[in-house]
Amino acid sequence: MARLVTKEGLEKLQHEFDERTTVIRQEIAKSIKEAKEQGDLSENAEYSAAKERQTENEARIAQLEVQIKDSRVVERNVNDDSAQIGSKVGVRTKNHQEMTFEIVGSNEADPVQRRISNESPIGKALIGARAGDMVDVDTPSGKMQYEITSVN
Description:
The structure is a single chain. This protein has helices at 7-36, 45-70, 121-126; strands spanning 3-5, 71-73, 88-93, 98-104, 115-117, 134-139, 142-151. By secondary structure, it is α/β, with parallel strands linked by helices. The chain has two domains: 3-73, Orthogonal Bundle (Helix Hairpins); 88-151, Transcription elongation factor, GreA/GreB, C-terminal domain (Chitinase A, domain 3). The strands form two sheets. The protein has a five-stranded mixed β-sheet with strand order 5-4-3-7-6. A two-stranded parallel ribbon has the order 1-2. The longest helix is centred in the N-terminal third of the chain and has 30 residues, at 7-36. The relative contact order is 0.15. The model has no long low-confidence stretch (mean pLDDT 90).
């Protein structure tokens, strides 16, 4: 199944992949070589740590390969003023608290930065909304209502 991502999200994945397959792999190989030169590998903590780091790096590379291969970049339709993946959506709560959410693919979500997945309850509610609309969102703390103040 294709994973929806923004252009920036795919570039970030590709950058991490490139970094891990070139720079980090070389650093780890150098660490392993230096640790081997110290002799007895059975009691060599530096060698064990470098091998563990190598295993973790290769696992992340494999994960990134799948994510990149399965990603489909979603281009924002600039002629559509409704919220879409890639949109920044300004909202206001009943308590007049204002927030801005950026709707992104699930791999790019970072709730602390208010980058929300299109698959999250808030993301699902915002998709297709326009400035002036009211949307209801079921959250773990109860039903929230948001007024859409802007879509960029």
